[in-house]
Amino acid sequence: MRKLFYEDPYLRSFKTELLKQETDEQKRVYAVLKETAFYPTGGGQPHDLGTLNGIKVLDVEEADGEIRHYLESELDDSSLEVSGEIEWDRRFDHMQQHAGQHILSAAFEELFGYKTVSFHLGKELLTIDLDVSELPEQHAAEAERLANSIILENRPIDTRWVTAEEAGRLPLRKQLSVNEDIRLVIIPEYDYNGCGGTHPTSTGQVAGIKILDWERQKKKIRVQFVCGSRVLQQLQQKQRVTKELSQLLNAPEQDLPLAGKRLIENTKDLEKELEAARDALLDYEAKGLASCSPEAANGKLISEIYWGRSIQEMQKLARLIASQAEDAVVILINEAQDKLQFVCARGELPKVNMKDLSSELLKAINGKGGGNAQFAQGGGEKLMSGEKLLQQAKELAGQMAD
Question: What is the pLDDT of residues 109-144, one digit of tens each?
């Protein structure tokens, strides 16, 4: 099969002959052509998209020595002639990104000896994994600067099919993975690399490279970057976000970090004040409940039913009441849309075991919980009303107190 994308990576449309049309194991329809300009997934570069006779090409893979064009629907095989159209924006984006990766990887290796061990071309970002454990910020900046100078020089990007012997005489950046059908992508006096992807014919068409970030990944450094039109897309996106933040924080762009830091500090102060206010309200509520509850057979039985209250607040409230009323048994119930929760606690004097009480209540609501003799909590299914669960809890507490 003729691979037209190698003969002319700028070819956007072509006519050819349909060799066969079949379905694979996943019932996906695919066509095999006499020749194709559609690049199949491989070498870190995603496949092309486009159409065959107006039908969308969803995926392109090379398998069993043939290039399969996976289609949205079947071609009309009454005619063997096929017209292919490449989605050019996607193709050229991939050409820019792939060539940019060659340029940046070569920059890291030439300046610092950092070898690229893997490459991924994503929908928005590219990554390379460098065979180092640390990447100083200055090294990243210098590699980016060299890469962009190579782009500005508009050097030619040549592709060449060579034998293993011919390849052995060139300063290849990495060892070849094949011994025949060797295709080299060459930027003269800068980068010599075996590659099966599509690239522009000059470095100037890459337009620019910008490193965005890097992080450690399994003793390697993964560098995130963009090339070509993606640099402008990143700039537009960040400019939009910066403008929105500037308006929200009422600060010019250069003062945004300081404004953000100030906002975070103010928020932390407000959260502390709010927490203190909540604690004060809980303390007030606890004193009210402790002073108003009727006497039980063995001290005070303090109980309440809530709707949609957080379990954390009920825990604090129960502990506060128990600390303020040493003769109290506290049972608090919370109802939600589809569940029941409870907290039970005791002061120093009652002998009721809260863990035993909790265990019995959990059986009634098919729930889970935990605790100890002084304090326990749990929750489960809403198999009854809160009032009924509280009544059971009171009866159990009374029995345990006897």
Answer: 999 999 999 999 999 999 999 999 999 999 999 999
- Provide the 8-state DSSP code for 386: H
- CA nearest to 119, candidates 212, 223, 198, 215: 223
Instruction: Determine the 3-state secondary structure of 86 from DSSP.
Output: strand
Name the superfamily (CATH) of residues 92-236.
Threonyl-trna Synthetase; Chain A, domain 2 (3.30.980.10)
The DSSP H or E segment spanning 106 is helix 88-112
Q: Do the domains spanning 92-236 and 277-401 agree at the CATH topology level?
A: no
This prediction's pTM? 0.75
Structure tokens at 272: 């502390």
Q: Cα angle at 274 between 268 and 275, to 5 degrees?
A: 90
Cα 53–chain centre separation: 37
Alpha-carbon span 300 to 398, nearest angstrom? 11
Contacts within 8 Å (CB) and 24+ apart, 57-66: 59/28, 66/1, 66/32
Fold held by 277-401? Diaminopimelate Epimerase; Chain A, domain 1 (3.10.310)
Residue 349 neighbours by CB under 8 Å, 6+ apart? 299, 326, 327
Instruction: Match 């019932």 to its residue by tokens.
Output: 27
Name which of 94, 43, 53, 93 is nearest 74 in CA terms. 53
Determine the Cα–Cα distance for residues 389 and 381; give it in Å rounded to an integer: 11
pLDDT, one tens digit per residue, over 20-42 is: 999 999 999 999 999 999 999 98
Alpha-carbon radius of gyration of the chain: 35
Burial classification of residue 384, based on how many CB atoms lie within 10 Å of its CB (0-12 exposed, 13-18 middle, 19 or more buried): middle
Ordered by start, the domain boundaries in the chain are 2-85, 92-236, 277-401
Element (H, E) at 324: helix 311-324
Q: What is the pLDDT of residues 131-188, one digit of tens each?
A: 999 999 999 999 999 999 999 999 999 999 999 989 989 999 888 878 888 999 999 9
Q: What is the DSSP string of 188-239?
A: TTTEEEE--S---SBGGGG--EEEEEEEEETTEEEEEEEETHHHHHHHHHHH
- CATH number for region 2-85: 2.40.30.130
